[in-house]
Amino acid sequence: MKTKLLSNQIKKYLGQEELNNPKVLALIDAVNNSYGHYEKDRELLEKAMDLSSNELNEANTKLRLESEDNKIAIERLKVSLQILQEDEPENQRLKVENLSINDLAEIIQAETARRKIAEQKYKANVANLERSNKELDQFAYVVSHDLKAPLRAIASLAEWIEEDLEEKLTPESKSNLELLRGRVLRMESLIHGILAYSKAGKVTGDLKLVNVNKLINDIIDSLNPAPHIKITVDENLPTIETEETKLYQVLGNLISNSIKYNDKAKGTINVKYLDLEGVCQFSVEDNGPGIEKEYHNRIFMIFQTLSARDEIESTGIGLSIVKKIVEEQGGKIWVESEPGQGAKFIFTWPAPIKIKNKSLA
Prior knowledge:
This protein is 57% helix and 13% strand. By secondary structure, the chain is α+β, with helices and mostly antiparallel strands.
């Protein structure tokens, strides 16, 4: 259909003959189509212009939020990458400031894959370590079991020789036989110590309410210290929920050592306690000979003693067992001491405190 304006112009300037010319008719159709396309484009434009300002605002807000979300995502990726690189040397860490989100995602993906491989290796190492520990425990048990029998035989033979040749033995020979029996007893103590060390902290007992005052009194009664040794215990020791046997081992060993190594005519031992908000801190302090600072770490190593074994009989295993038990409980142990100033052994023991300043008689 021709537009009205176009029809009027054609009639005004062209006669009937020109209107019947095929070329003129083709031109008129082309112009008419152009008008039609123009009308359609104008209508589309008007529809586009009719979009409400609210719709435009909503679209703008959405774009802005998406942009902010992208910024937050980039910052989080940067933080994640920094955390992953914390254990890397400073000069090997990637600079994250100018990286794009795609760069960050690729780097983190690669780093995560590397960490996964490292974690798998770690798990394999843990499994190997657990297997080695089991084999070591079994070895310790077998060796100690195989050694006990011949040691008992040596001790028995020494007694029989002394009984059979009692009248013929010189004082020196008797002394040597006594020394032999002493060495056998020391070897037996070492065997028992090795077994105790291999088992320390592995046997898990039931949690129970433990009155620490009563526990320490039981320890003191069992040790039966000499009259010249005075032991004082804090009155504010709590009742806690813990494994009684393990705490008994630790406190018993520390108090026993303070008695054994005290060289004073009037020995004093003080057992004290501090409440560190859910963690108990105990200390056993004596007025003994003291320990030089260079040996503060060494004394917790297995088989380490500061005195010659001929002076004071010791396997050098007790404190290593104490350290192992305390650390497996999640605590720490250390010593504060100087030569001639006594020694103070302090350890922490994570355990819920159930009753303060009371005693379960």
